[in-house]
């Protein structure tokens, strides 16, 4: 069969080829239009084929300096190119950050997919309706009444840390802060999230569950900067990918067992008519329900428990460690802190921090905020536009990655005068009032802000107050601390301090 002498097969193939060509041309024109829009943004010179991807000197002090310098040159918005084709918009000023954080622009798959095999579609990773439902069901777990009862856990865990520090102090030794603070934070979150008494502060890093979590953190930081290992199927072919899988399995098995045990207990209580309202995080997760009575599935509960463990442990470790570092570095700040603590404690014997104490520590709160500003645990957040959006006077096309560079926002020299100086008074009420709230975003802001912000602030205040009650901290003068970017901001070579009992000074 033929039409005007041309076979139907030829006609069909020509039509398909024409259609494909049209699609390709339209895609290309769309791509050119988007690139032209992005090219209007200020940016650094690019390198052939590599774009700007090879220009950051390192992930330590030199890299941070480079980030600050670039922010000084382009203090609102800029474009960076990963290779020749992928444009990334960087927002570093309250005016531009605000547009992104206040919106519902979703999280980018690029970065968050790396943790999906561990955390699943938990609160940190999910988007849209799934995220909104989880956020609504989980918010009651952070009600003040619940946070109040966590204070006992935090005090007990801080007591273990302080006693450890006492031993170092008795021997007059400098010790590395980060690892002990990490065990403390893990102890707190394991008890609060899982009701899991791990004794990890005494067992140390040998506990299999703790080893697996710290291995996952280490592997995540390593993979984060190796974008060629982003596809899971490639990563799992490597030995690190196989280690990641093993560690994920172990963490999931432990979490599932704890959840099952707790569920069984709840069922038994219910059958025996001894049911009491659930006041803790895991209990709330197990009993949370939508209006139609649907609760979270076992998989969803595990994802949330894993999410809170991850978000609630490494971040507070980083935050607390950098606070202790700043206190040890600035002796005038430390003196003022001691004065405030002494006033709050009066002649009380107990070293426990009460709920009321937490709101009577204004200077400590300023010190914590200033430390979070200079050394934010989370340095970077990523979103991807789902439709065109206007930011800072520029049209940003759909499907563009937006980097909210938290570190640069908090160190932006056009927003923070003498930005590299440690000045807690920046956060006094009179200095805060005039500042745009989106200038200070260590916990992010807007609908996807940190749900654990108050939990974290309470934890940091409690442990720092307990340490300040007993000790004077000094930095090891022979140890130069090197900051390092990763899943959180940590120290490449640790933070070494000496704790001197205050009564001996
Ligand atoms: C100093 C400590 C902390 C800092 C600096 C911090 C910072 C942040 C930041 C910047 C985000 C936004 C991340 C993004 O958009 O990708 C976030 C989200 C989140 N944080 Fe925190 N965080 C801290 C402690 C905690 C704690 C203790 C918990 C839990 C107990 C927690 C749970 C979460 C969760 C679940 C999210 C996702 C919220 C959502 O998307 O709805 N964080 N945190």
UniProtKB/TrEMBL annotation:
Q: Which domain of life is it from?
A: Eukaryota
**Which PROSITE patterns does the entry mention?**
CYTOCHROME_P450
Which Pfam families would you find in this protein's record?
Answer: p450
The protein's UniProt keywords, in alphabetical order, are: Heme, Iron, Membrane, Metal-binding, Monooxygenase, Oxidoreductase, Transmembrane, Transmembrane helix
Q: Where are the membrane-spanning stretches?
A: 6-25
Q: In which family does this protein belong, per the annotation?
A: Belongs to the cytochrome P450 family.
Its protein name is: CP4F2-like protein
Organism from which the protein derives: Mya arenaria (Soft-shell clam)
Its ancestry begins with: Eukaryota, Metazoa, Spiralia, Lophotrochozoa, Mollusca
């Amino acid at each position: 069969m033929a039409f005007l002498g041309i076979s139907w097969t030829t006609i069909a193939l020509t039509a398909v080829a024409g259609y494909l060509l049209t699609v390709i041309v339209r895609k290309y024109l769309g791509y050119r239009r988007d690139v032209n829009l992005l090219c209007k943004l200020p940016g650094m010179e690019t390198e052939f084929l590599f774009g700007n991807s090879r220009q950051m000197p390192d992930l330590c002090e030199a890299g941070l300096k480079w980030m600050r310098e670039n922010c000084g040159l382009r203090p609102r918005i800029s474009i960076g190119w990963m290779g020749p084709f992928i444009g990334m918009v960087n927002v570093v000023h309250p005016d531009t950050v605000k547009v992104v954080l206040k919106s519902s622009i979703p999280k980018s798959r690029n970065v968050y997919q790396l943790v999906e095999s561990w955390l699943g579609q938990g609160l940190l990773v999910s988007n849209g309706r799934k995220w909104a439902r989880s956020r609504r069901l989980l918010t009651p777990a952070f009600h003040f009444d619940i946070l109040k009862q966590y204070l006992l856990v935090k005090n007990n865990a801080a007591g273990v840390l302080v006693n450890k520090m006492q031993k170092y102090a008795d021997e007059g030794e400098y010790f590395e802060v980060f690892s002990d603070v990490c065990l403390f934070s893990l102890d707190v979150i394991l008890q609060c999230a899982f009701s899991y008494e791990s004794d990890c502060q005494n067992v140390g890093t040998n506990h299999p569950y703790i080893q697996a979590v710290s291995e996952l953190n280490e592997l995540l930081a390593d993979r984060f900067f190796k974008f060629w290992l982003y596809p899971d199927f490639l990563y799992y072919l490597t030995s690190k990918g196989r280690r990641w899988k093993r560690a994920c399995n172990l963490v999931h098995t432990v979490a599932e067992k704890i959840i099952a045990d707790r569920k069984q207990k709840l069922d038994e209580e219910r059958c025996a008519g001894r049911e009491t309202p659930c006041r803790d995080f895991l209990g709330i997760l197990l009993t949370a329900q939508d209006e139609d009575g649907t609760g979270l599935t076992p998989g969803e509960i595990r994802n949330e428990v894993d999410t809170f463990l991850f978000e609630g442990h490494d971040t507070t470790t980083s935050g607390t460690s950098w606070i202790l570092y700043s206190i040890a570095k600035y002796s005038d700040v430390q003196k003022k802190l001691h004065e405030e603590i002494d006033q709050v404690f009066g002649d009380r014997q107990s070293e426990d921090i009460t709920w009321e104490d937490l709101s009577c520590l204004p200077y400590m709160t300023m010190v914590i905020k200033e430390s979070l500003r200079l050394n934010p645990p989370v340095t970077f957040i990523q979103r991807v536009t789902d439709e065109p959006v206007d930011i800072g006077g520029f049209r940003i096309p759909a499907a563009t990655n937006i980097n909210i560079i938290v570190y640069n926002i908090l160190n932006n020299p056009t927003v923070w005068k003498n930005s590299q100086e440690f000045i807690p008074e920046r956060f006094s009420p009179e200095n805060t009032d005039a500042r745009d709230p989106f200038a200070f975003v260590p916990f992010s802001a807007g609908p996807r802000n940190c749900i654990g912000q108050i939990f974290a602030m309470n934890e940091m205040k409690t442990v720092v107050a307990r340490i300040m009650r007993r000790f004077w901290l000094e930095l090891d003068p022979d140890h130069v601390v090197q900051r390092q970017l990763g899943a959180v901001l940590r120290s490449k070579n640790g933070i070494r301090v000496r704790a001197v009992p205050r009564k001996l000074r």
